[in-house]
Structures are given as structure tokens and as C-alpha cells.
């Protein structure tokens, strides 16, 4: 098995949307549906991911801090090192009813859930 190579080089948003998300073992978890960018800082706040089939539920979306992912150059996929149990319990939302991403408490709760410092601090 070849060594995975990770990258932190800049990439186009269009090349990220639709990219597969896998766990560290390479098992498919879902795919990236959208990127959410903070217009004030220009930072990517979240990747919105669908885990529908993996978690055995209807399509549900999850806002996951972008810093939680590692990009595998060799496999062209994003690696998310979060347990299946933690993903099942993660705060998600219906594709037709997005949360208010301007709500600071909602943002803090999501970043806290994934044990990441908020991107704006």
C-alpha cells in the first residue's frame, strides 16, 4: 500500500465540491456538498458534507470545520478522523432548512463539537 501524501496547497472551491470524504481506513463516509466562506476574513468556515448512506438515514447535511479535514493528494479525497458514533450524534440539518450560519452560538457549538478552535479567533 502506498504512503498517503497530504497537501495544504491552495485549491479551487470547484475542485473540492463533490470530493469524497473517507475515514483514516479509507472507508467512504460521504461527499462535500458545499463550502461556506466567511466574507470578512476570506477563510473557509465549513465544508458541508452529506453522510446519508453511511449513517443509514435520509440525506442530512453536516457543517464540519474545514480544519478537521486532511486532503489526500494521492487519493484525491478528504480524510475525516471522526468516529462513526460521533458522526451519528453530530449536529446536522435538513438540506432545505439550513441553520443561520451568522448565529455565533451555533458556530461555537459546531466548532466545540469537533474540538476545533473557532476559525475567527
Describe it.
The chain has one domain (12-113): PRC-barrel domain (SH3 type barrels). The protein is globular, with a radius of gyration of 14 Å. It has helices spanning 13-16, 52-55, 84-88, 104-113, and strands at residues 6-7, 20-22, 28-37, 44-50, 61-65, 69-72, 77-80. A 7-stranded mixed beta sheet has the order 1-6-7-2-3-4-5. Helix content is 19%, strand content 29%. It is built from 4 helices and 7 strands, in the order E-H-E-E-E-H-E-E-E-H-H. The protein is an alpha+beta fold.
Q: Could you give the topology of this structure?
A:
Blueprint: E1 6-7, H1 13-16, E2 20-22, E3 28-37, E4 44-50, H2 52-55, E5 61-65, E6 69-72, E7 77-80, H3 84-88, H4 104-113
Parallel strand pairs: 2-7
Antiparallel strand pairs: 1-6, 2-3, 3-4, 4-5, 6-7
Please tag this protein with its features.
SH3 type barrels, alpha+beta, 121 residues
Tell the overall outline: globular
Q: Secondary-structure element sequence? A: EHEEEHEEEHH
Would you tell me which CATH topology applies? SH3 type barrels
Number of strands: 7
Indicate the radius of gyration in whole angstroms. 14 Å
Mean pLDDT level? 85
Q: Ends: how far apart?
A: 39 Å
Strand content: 25-35%
CATH superfamily: PRC-barrel domain
Quick overview of this protein structure:
By secondary structure, the protein is an alpha+beta fold. Helix content is 19%, strand content 29%. The chain starts with 5 loop residues before the first strand and ends in an 8-residue tail after the last helix.
Amino acid at each position: 500500500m502506498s504512503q498517503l501524501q497530504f497537501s495544504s496547497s491552495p485549491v479551487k472551491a470547484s475542485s473540492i465540491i463533490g470530493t469524497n470524504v473517507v475515514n483514516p481506513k479509507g472507508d467512504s463516509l460521504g461527499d462535500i456538498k458545499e463550502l461556506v466562506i466567511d466574507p470578512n476574513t476570506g477563510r473557509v468556515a465549513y465544508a458541508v458534507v452529506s453522510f446519508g448512506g453511511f449513517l443509514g438515514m435520509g440525506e442530512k447535511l453536516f457543517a464540519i470545520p474545514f480544519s478537521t479535514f486532511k486532503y489526500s493528494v494521492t487519493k484525491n479525497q478528504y480524510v475525516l478522523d471522526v468516529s462513526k458514533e460521533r458522526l451519528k450524534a453530530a449536529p446536522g440539518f435538513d438540506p432545505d432548512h439550513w441553520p443561520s450560519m451568522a448565529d455565533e452560538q451555533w458556530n461555537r457549538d459546531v466548532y466545540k463539537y469537533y474540538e476545533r478552535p473557532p476559525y475567527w479567533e
